[in-house]
Amino acid sequence: MKNKIGCISEIILFLNRWKCRFKKEIAAIVLSNWALKNLDKIKRLNGLSIEKIDLQKNGSLINDMYNSLIDTKNIGIHNMSDACASKFLHILVPELFVMWDKNIKPYKSFLYGDFLESMQKFSNSIKNKFLEKYPSKDIESFLQNELRYPIKKTLAKYIDEYNWYVAFGHSRLGY
User: Fold this and answer.
1) d(CA 72, CA 79)
2) Distance between terminal CA atoms of the chain?
3) Alpha helices of 7-81 — where are they, by DSSP H?
4) What angle do CA 48, 150, 148 make, to 5 degrees?
5) How much is the pTM?
């Protein structure tokens, strides 16, 4: 985890390529401070996945983290959006956090915690259907092979890509 926090400049560059448009110097300070302040929470969530996390137990923790990222608007990151906050969380715990944008319908009126709960139900549904058909296979490896991706992605990332595809179509899907 400290490796990710120590690479905050690279994370900001990555997020800016995803159109977060952060001012590098300010974002480096604010996000480093945020990550250090939330390090214990991040460690508690590290290793948990979207399909296995107990959202009843961890939901308030997740909402607090997400909301505190959104609140960085008040301390220097004026363009911190729902998409940027969820992308940052995804980078920190990629198996758990599904990236979110309020423009992805039907989740426009959701809070992030509600969205994550919906994504958990969706991930469990598709994983159960997958396991009925392929009981001895790993869904992430299967999707990597089927989609011919050069790297294996997390189920949370595949769900993000599915949501983007449904919302905007194949022509705007990034690989």
Assistant:
1) 9
2) 25
3) 8-17, 24-37, 39-45, 55-70
4) 100
5) 0.88
